[in-house]
Structures are given as C-alpha cells and as structure tokens.
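WARN  no MSA supplied for this record, continuing single-sequence
INFO  ligand: heme C
INFO  echoing inputs
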Amino acid sequence: MIEMFKPSRVAGLAVALATLFGAAGLSQPAWAEGGEQPTRQQWSFAGPFGRYDQGQLQRGFKVYREVCSACHSLHRVAFRTLADHGGPGFTEGQVKALAAEYTVMDVPNDKGEVLERKGRPADYFPLVYPNDQAAAVANNGAVPPDMSLLAKARGVKSGFPGFVFDIFTQYQEQGPDYIHALITDGYLKDDEKPPEGVTVPPNGHYNKIFGASIGMAKPLADGQVEYTDGAPQTVDQYTRDVAAFLAWAADPSLEKRKQTGFVVIIFLIVLAGLLYYTKKKIWADAH
Ligand code: HEC
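INFO  complex generated
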C-alpha cells in the first residue's frame, strides 16, 4: 500500500478536515443570529495587493470624531499612530495639535494624586464614559462598544461552502461590510415594520442587520459631516469611510503584512525554481 494512503493517515486527515469545517460552522456570532447578511462592498484594502486609501481614512476619522466619538471610545488607539505609514497619514504637527485637544489622566504624582493634563501624541484616546454603568445610564441601558477592534470583532457568517471560496479570494472585510450595512441598510424605512413577534423597547430601533432591536438610533444623515475633498456627503459615503477607518484602527499593519507576504511568495517561487534545477543537475547521471 502506498505510504501516503495508510488508513491511520486518512483518518487523521479526516479528523483535521472535520475540525476545520466544524470550527467554521461554530463561529456564528450571537449578534448575527437572525440578522440579514450584509452586502459585500468594494474596499481598497481588499485582496493581496490591497492598501488603505489615505483620503478615505482621513474622512473616516472626521466622521468618527464628529459623530461616533460622542458615544464610542477608541481606547486602544494611540494618537501617534495617526501619523504612521500605511495609516491616515496625518503629519506629526497635526497629531500633536489633535492630542492636545483631549484631556487625559496623568500618572500619579509624588502625593499620589492623579491629575488631568493635555493629551500628547503617545497617549491613547481617552474613554468617553468612565465605566460601562455610566455608559449604560447615558444610552438607555445599552453600552456603546469601544471601537478600537470593532471592525475585527464583528463579522459576516458565510457558512459552508462560502467560506471555502473566501479562503481563496482572501475575503477578510467582514467587519467593514457589517458596519456599513448596519447603518445604511439595517434601519427600517418609514413604511417598514419589525418582523412579527419582535418587541421593540421604547428607546430601541429594529435593525435588520443586527437582527434585533438595537440601542443606537441611526447615527448619520446626509450632509451631516462636511467633506472638503469633494467626496459625496451621503450616509453611504460616511459609513464607507468610517468603516474603512475602523478597519485600519483594528488592523494598522495590514499594508506592511501584505507587502511582506508578497515578497515571501516571490522568494518561495524563486527558491522552488532553484531547487528544481539543482535536483535535475544532481540526479542527471542517475537516469
Ligand atoms: C448617541 C450615542 C451613539 C452614537 C453617536 C453612535 N453610536 Fe454606535 N452604538 C451606540 C450604542 C448605545 C450601541 C450599543 C447598542 C446595543 O448593544 O443595543 C452602539 C453600537 C454600535 C455598533 C455595534 C453593533 C453591534 O454589532 O454590537 C456599531 C457598529 C456602531 N454602534 C457604529 C457606530 C458608528 C459608525 C457611529 C458613528 C457614525 C456610531 N455608532 C455612533 C451609541 C451610539
């Protein structure tokens, strides 16, 4: 029997595949239960050569700052990263000025007091609410999640066989697709009603993508944020931009990683070629 097809090996392979497929099936997140599938969008950072669009990240940051930051914090993001390569590309001076607009808590002084001071580029975005309880009180019981990792923490379930294709197309933009769809398509139009049997609390808003009543009113309206680069001032564009910004916040080294990956593949192709010709040469006399 050929070594490779020993029963024990085949069984091992079957177990490995079952684990892989089973794990994918179990990844259904709670918030997606009953929620509609978001429509997939085109993102500049998709695919093996994807890169963030600097202008879009800057617009997205503007939307975050003028709208979402009233409730959502960005507590794992340091101001300085806004000037990093592969990010929104603000200048050091802009970042310094921006950080100074925020008040942060200093480290304890000699007397053990923790005093407030102006933010510096090395600081992180401060919390919007001191704790979840305060956040819930201010938002009718719902807590606005921190946005630092939101674009990675939310997703779309593709299930079998969809996720197999996603491996080959390198689809990883579930988070931005979800955020975009949640705000643009999720909220009910005036003539739509929540599905039968769903009770929406007085301060809730039924959202089709959330699949339930959500404690956040639709946060954007056309014309709400002013763009200076001529991009359309629509909810669709705002949401696209803020979702791209949040994708960067959650994965700031995407560009570097994709570049490294590309170099590695080229290296492996060249190495494979060299190995092939070396093998031919060494075994040339043996045939
Ligand atoms: C007035 C406060 C407020 C503003 C402004 C606001 N949100 Fe929210 N948001 C909330 C609250 C509260 C929740 C939690 C809702 C819940 O769990 O029912 C939430 C939840 C979310 C969620 C998570 C949904 C999930 O799957 O758990 C996303 C995404 C989101 N907001 C995006 C945004 C974006 C983008 C903006 C800015 C354009 C924004 N929000 C502005 C209050 C706000």
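Residues 35-54+154-273 form a domain with the Cytochrome Bc1 Complex; Chain D, domain 2 fold (CATH 1.10.760).
INFO  checksum written, moving to next record
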